[in-house]
Amino acid sequence: MVFKRRHLPSLGALATFEVAAKHLSFTLAGNELNVTQAAISQQIRGLEKALGTALFVRKHNSLELTSSGQAILTAVSSGLDRISEALNTFNSPEDAPVITCSGTNAASTYWLKPYMDRFSALHGGVRFVLLASDEDDTLRNFDEVDVSFICGNERCDVGETLHYLFPEIVEPVCGPDYFHRFGPFPGPAAIATAELLTLHQKHWSSEAIGWFPITWNDWFAANHVEGPTRLPRMVSNSYPILIEAAVAGQGFVLGWHHIVRSLVAEGRLVMPFNAPLRVDRGNYLKVNKASLGKPYVQEFIEFVLADVATMVKGDTSCSS
Fold it and tell me: How far is it, in rounded angstroms, from Cα 161 to Cα 309?
């Protein structure tokens, strides 16, 4: 087989770009990589020249990814992840402990994976497999899946254990840039004319859920406000896309507390007022009993539950 040589920029520059895009700051990227801000800026400019396109919109005190930058970030992150996974097959013994988890795309990205990262930092020999889907609810039933994050009015079946985590609570959130440009927003009525990022009905599969999904109209009705007066700026069946659009300052997204909490704590999203909608269902950690004898599975479950207990105790909006 003859392999075609790929004409690629420096892999080091691409890795630097990923860090800069993560922070949206050359200074913070320099701190992480232990180089100067000027060195990061020079590498990014060289990469932009090599690619023939701008990757960032440079503002006075901030950066934003261009559409080209976002597309390249997706490709670079995926490629580096695959390289890392391939290298791990050489560096990790085949019998290294593996914990397999499942959840929706958003819950896996913003809720489950941070727990995996923190647990891995404490237990370096543990590997994780994360199966994410908004359509295939049967993932939770796979024999290989040890722990699943699920939502609904669930009952414990034979061979399973369900741990209640927290209630289902949603509340509007937006990026700080959007808030500063168009705010303040003193209450629910103030966002009826705002840019609303909306989850498309195709996000929900009838096979994947057993409840009615929460919509903007539900939230407005619960707060005794007439619904939106304009068509949504963006509609997508991918909740992570809407979250990132909100972070980028493109409008409000209806934020599930457990998904947006860390982004609010980091200052990437803001809650301009207190108007949560709590519905009659909960979120659970489903455990495959057959997995409890596997190394580190019980420890991981206890790690998650202990953190959730602390979080809920300190979250008055969730405990009300």
Answer: 18
| pLDDT > 50? residue 1 | no
Q: Are 187 and 273 in contact (CB under 8 A)?
A: yes
User: Exposure of 121 by Cβ count < 10 A (0-12 exposed, 13-18 middle, 19+ buried)?
Assistant: exposed
Cα–Cα distance list, 226 to 184, 187, 201, 212, 275 (Å): 19, 13, 21, 20, 15
Give me the CATH number covering residue 74. Answer: 1.10.10.10
The tens digit of pLDDT for each residue in 215-255 reads: 888 899 999 998 787 788 788 888 899 999 999 999 999 99
User: In 10 A of CB 252, how many CB atoms?
Assistant: 27
Considering the domain architecture, whether residues 129 and 91 belong to the same structural domain is answered as yes
H/E stretch holding 91 reads helix 67-91
Residue 219 neighbours by CB distance under 10 Å: 20
Alpha carbon distance 117, 95 (integer Å)? 20
Tell me: do 221 and 143 sit in the same domain: no
pLDDT of residue 158: 39
Q: Which amino acid is at 15?
A: A
Same domain, yes or no: 227 and 288: no
Name, in order, each residue with C-beta under 8 angstroms of 315's C-beta and a sequence gap of 6 or more.
257, 261
pLDDT tens digit sequence for 261-315: 989 999 999 999 999 998 877 888 888 888 888 889 999 999 999 998 887 665 5
Helix (H, G, I), strand (E, B) or coil at 233: coil
If we measure between CA atoms, which residue out of 183, 181, 260, 194 comes closest to residue 225? 194
Confidence at 60, pLDDT banded by 50, 70, 90: confident
Q: Are residues 128 and 195 in the same domain?
A: no
By the 8 A CB rule, do 99 and 296 touch? yes
Query: The domain containing residue 143 runs over which residues?
Result: 87-166+281-315
User: Contact at 8 Å (CB) between 152 and 137?
Assistant: no
Q: Where are the beta strands (DSSP E) in 158-233?
A: 160-174, 196-199
